[in-house]
Design goal:
mainly alpha, 6 helices, 0% strand
């Protein structure tokens, strides 16, 4: 129960941060990607701030014997750059550039009850299931 509450609070803080920074607005993200037009650098500042907070928090967490809400740290092992990673990254970038949403802001924006984030979320989950099916069949 404590872990679920911790996950909920972490997600809530993340979504509030996305909303405050304006990253739930596709126009803002697309303006960041428009480097030759009406460029908006605010996403860069959000990313730099997030990297700063993460790098400090990560180092502090590694100094602890165990996490607060779990029995042990779960740090993923580095893996090789392979075909599924490259395909997934390319699809992520294409989707982000076309829609102006990535998964976190899109799911946060579902609370607005607007059609755009809902359509994106349906495509997001559809793409995840499609990828899993193709991977399970060894197509990719």
């Amino acid at each position: 129960m404590k872990a679920a509450l911790g996950a909920y609070l972490t997600g809530l803080i993340f979504s509030v941060g996305l909303a405050i920074s304006g990253m739930t607005q596709p126009k803002k993200v697309l303006a960041f990607l428009d480097v030759l037009g009406d460029w908006d650098p605010s996403l860069m500042f959000v990313m730099v701030g997030a990297i700063g907070v993460y790098s400090i928090a990560y180092r502090l967490v590694l100094k602890k014997e165990k996490p607060i809400l779990e029995d042990k740290l779960q740090i993923p092992e580095p893996k090789k750059v392979d075909r599924p990673l490259i395909i997934g990254a390319a699809l992520f970038g294409i989707g982000w550039g076309l829609a102006g949403f990535c998964p976190g802001p899109a799911l946060t924006s579902l609370g607005t009850l607007q059609a755009t984030p809902l359509i994106f979320a349906v495509g997001l989950f559809g793409g995840m299931f499609l990828f899993k099916g193709l991977r399970d069949r060894k197509v990719i």
